[in-house]
Structure to design on (424 residues):
């Protein structure tokens, strides 16, 4: 099975909680606070793997969660950090946010670790909050809890050259004779159902060629295999347009060439603008005909000098070397491909500053990232913790913001599931 688009769910690990603990050692009746910090949650990391060429493994497992950080414990012992989770994808996998469809990352560089989600921070234990005036803090901080995200993985193969043409014209045969790829070759339409990649070794250079299923007239409307797989050559730099010059199936070669170009254009103007080299294949079938040379010359005359035209026989491996020479001649001057622009630079950057105050019926509700962050450290049942909370609301200007919105002493304020009266 070949899968090139899939939705998966990813979640970084939660941060472990800090704990409240006091040293109880014999001879030390009032030992100091010794609650350790929680560990950091694991990250979600994507890496390119050359062992996978499509996204089929994600068809079976769709949930990926990094390990949670452990809670702290007494005697200042910090919790262990959660384990990172590694997700292996083929080169050219584009990761999008399922909700907004924005590009989060393009898996472009091998050996790079792409940290897509960062694990939650561990909470501080009560030992951390000890100061000279607060020697026995009875509160600790919760670990940062992380959210699960749905993301779309879409494979957009990265290759240098794309082979295009009608079915059965010999694209896969050509791939097999210029690279060490061994695609299926057979004398019927749509032998190739999914893209094949091969590497051409050219002196001290090398480049990647992608062979895709054949296109036919109406592909853009879904005829044949449709044109969805064209996305696998969208990121090539050069197209080799393979044409059956022998008309072995009764079609007119120049018309084939025009039809395919039309289909390309209706898929993407960018693809249609890529430079093309024309490989006139199956010349062996016309070589002995008296009009053999004329057929080739007529085709060349029709396309004019805008295109390089190379007659070949992929099956007999005739003149294939000249074709590869022409490919390299063009390719070497074409700009290198670049990763797709990331549209979501702040994906999963935790919001710790936003504040929203709303008047609802007879109370005021405060929400936003600032509050989420603050609340992590609060145990309202604890007197010290509650007064710390109030102090932060005052110091950070939240009380003033409430008043600016019209709140008065005695009014009810709601923060998450906490309710209290405004007291100035
Ligand atoms: N006579 C001759 N036959 C060829 C040549 N190249 C390919 N063929 C034959 O044409 C048929 C189709 O070849 P493929 O390479 O499978 O064609 P394709 O373009 O990949 O076809 P699809 O995958 O179906 O789009 C096979 O029977 C090949 O042996 C050639 O140069 N001369
Ligand atoms: Mg094929």
């Amino acid at each position: 099975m070949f899968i090139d688009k899939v939705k998966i769910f990813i979640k970084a690990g939660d941060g472990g909680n800090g704990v409240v603990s006091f040293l109880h050692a014999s001879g030390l009746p009032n030992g100091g606070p010794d609650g350790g910090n929680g560990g950091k949650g694991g990250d979600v990391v994507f890496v390119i793997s050359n062992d996978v060429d499509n996204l089929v493994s994600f068809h079976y497992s769709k949930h990926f969660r990094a390990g949670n950080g452990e809670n702290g414990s007494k005697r200042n012992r910090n919790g262990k950090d959660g384990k990172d989770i590694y997700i292996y994808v083929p080169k050219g996998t584009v990761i999008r946010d399922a909700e907004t469809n924005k590009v989060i990352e393009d898996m472009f560089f091998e050996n790079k670790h792409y940290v897509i989600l960062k694990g939650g921070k561990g909470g501080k234990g009560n030992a951390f909050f000890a100061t000279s005036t607060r020697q026995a803090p009875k509160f600790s901080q919760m670990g940062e809890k992380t959210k699960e995200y749905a993301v779309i993985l879409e494979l957009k193969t990265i290759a240098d050259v794309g082979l295009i043409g009608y079915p059965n014209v010999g694209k896969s045969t050509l791939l097999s004779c210029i690279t060490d790829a061994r695609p299926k070759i057979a004398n019927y339409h749509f032998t190739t159902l999914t893209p094949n990649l091969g590497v051409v070794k050219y002196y001290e250079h090398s480049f990647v060629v992608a062979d895709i299923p054949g296109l036919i007239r109406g592909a853009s409307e879904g005829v044949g295999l449709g044109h969805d797989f064209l996305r696998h050559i969208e990121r090539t730099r050069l197209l080799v347009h393979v044409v059956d010059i022998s008309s072995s199936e009764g079609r007119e070669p120049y018309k084939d060439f025009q039809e395919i170009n039309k289909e390309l254009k209706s898929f993407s103007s960018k693809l249609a603008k890529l430079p093309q080299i024309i490989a006139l294949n199956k010349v062996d079938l016309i070589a002995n005909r008296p009009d053999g040379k004329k057929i080739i010359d007529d085709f060349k005359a029709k396309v004019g000098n805008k295109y390089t035209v190379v007659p070949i026989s992929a099956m007999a491996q005739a003149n294939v070397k000249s074709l590869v020479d022409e490919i390299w001649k063009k390719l070497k001057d074409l700009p290198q491909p670049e990763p797709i622009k990331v549209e979501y630079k702040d994906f999963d950057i935790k919001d710790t500053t936003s504040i929203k105050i709303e008047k609802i019926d007879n109370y005021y509700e405060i929400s936003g990232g600032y509050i989420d962050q603050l609340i992590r450290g609060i145990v309202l049942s604890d007197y010290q913790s509650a007064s710390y909370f109030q102090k932060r609301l005052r110091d950070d200007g939240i009380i003033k913001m409430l008043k600016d919105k019209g709140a008065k002493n005695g009014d009810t304020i709601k923060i998450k599931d906490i309710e209290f009266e405004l007291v100035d």
Observations:
- The chain has a mean pLDDT of 90.
- The pocket of magnesium ion (ligand 2) is lined by residues 171-172, 183, 191-192, 211 (CB under 6 Å).
